[in-house]
Amino acid sequence: MNAPVLSDTLLRILADKEAEVRTRSAATPLDEMERLARDADKPRDFTGALCNAVAEGRIGLIAEVKRASPSGGLIRDPFEPATIAREYEAAGASCLSVLTDAPYFQGAPEHLAEARKACKLPVLRKDFMIDPWQVFESRTMGADCILLILAALSDAQANELEDVARSLDMSVLAEVHDERELERALGLNTRLIGINNRNLRSLRTDLATAERLVPSVPADRIPVAESGLRNPEDVRRMANVGARCILVGEHLLRQPDLTAAARAMVEA
To answer: Is 227 in the active site?
Structure first.
């Protein structure tokens, strides 16, 4: 298998994440984090929420809550996760995605907890998952779904992380960027296949990535188009190739009327 060519930024993020997990897991050992996770409230049905949207002929919008990004800088200030979550819910979003990485996205576990408490939508923890400890941590902070970036994981790692998530009744969004990663993702059990339009080396977005890959996603899986969607025309472009679920963040968060912007995506 050829290793993906990652950007220097992503390589730094993954190295820093390994150090972060070592530090945090030393403070709260794995067995204790697992106990906390299994004692947490039952997760909301993330996959079901998207399935329901598609079954009803709607766009399944995973609306993102994030303050900043390495490529976009500060995106929204003031940043109020609870308010953002309520506005997304009012617009008809199916799910939320909340960034929890601090060094590169100015995220925090508290952002996820605040957003989830403010609405009834299932929530994806958007972070760089590399260790089972993080999956248990995700459940303790209220996450209903985790993201697995195939480019950052071996098949053994991806399977292990998915197994932990499934044992907690959590959903998994497997993110791919090319044909080889798609083939690997289809070896997992999850129905949710994220097609990221952002090139891992240049960090530029191109909707042609999803147009190329979505037709190869089997009918029993749910393709989710990620990155680069900026208007209803882009949403229709993705729907035309079979991706009726989308993940949108930066475009929405830069709009003064968040509810109207999100509704336009849902009703595209």
So the answer is: yes
Reply yes or no on whether 66 is catalytic: yes
**Tell me, what CATH number does 35's domain have?**
3.20.20.70
Choice among 196, 197, 211, 250 that is catalytic: 196
Count of the separate structural domains present in the chain = 1
**CA 211/CA 225 separation, integer angstroms:** 9
Active-site residue, 17 included = no
Report whether pLDDT(4) > 80.
no
Tens digits of residue pLDDT in 87-127:
999 999 999 999 999 999 999 999 999 999 999 999 999 99
* 175 a catalytic residue: yes
- The reply to whether 181 belongs to the active site is no
71 assigned to active site: no
Active-site residue, from 87, 211, 226, 250: 226
The single residue of 20, 25, 34, 126 carrying the catalytic annotation is 126
Is 114 designated active site? no
Domain extent at residue 214: 3-266
